Amino acid sequence: MDMNLVNWAAVVVAGLSAFAVGGIWYSRALFGNAWMTDSGLTEDQIKAGNKGKIFGFTALFSIIMSANLAMFLADAKTDMAWGATAGFLAGIWTFGAIATHSLFELKSWRHIFINGGYSIVSLTLMGLILGAWR
Fold it and tell me: How many domains is the chain built from?
């Protein structure tokens, strides 16, 4: 790993790309209604949530994940294809963690695939951005 090959602007953009994916993924048009049902949350509960805390920590953790992925990709041979592949593989890894926690929380398979699928898609996009923006 060569830290000089980490593009920190790309890390931030890739990390924040998770917001774009999440906005689409958890929209009512895609998986939002199913996710709310399987999470046992109502619209009122979601509206009552502390948005600053939720979005602030989400941004922080997304950037941390992006930085971690960028460090794994800090090699002169990294390109867009390898970045996307590494992101996908990281997504599979996090899918496994999400599935394990969710099974103990007695969540449905639908819930697991919604959250795990988001992780796979968002990390694949992060890797693609990091690999492309060298």
Answer: 1
Distances (CA, A) of 19 to 77, 103, 107, 108: 28, 26, 24, 24
Among residues 132, 124, 122, the alpha carbon closest in space to that of 18 is found at 122
CA–CA distance from 126 to each of 34, 119, 131, 134 (Å)? 25, 10, 9, 13
- Show the domain range for 27: 3-132
To the nearest 10°, report the CA torsion of 19, 81, 111, 32: 40
**Residue 31 clears pLDDT 90, i.e. is over it:** yes
Q: What is the per-residue pLDDT for 3?
A: 86
**H/E element, 44:** helix 43-48
Mean pLDDT of 88-103: 98
CA angle at residue 133 from 84 to 52, to 5 degrees?
80
Helices 109-132 and 51-72: crossing angle in degrees, nearest 10, is: 60
Q: What is the pTM of this model?
A: 0.93
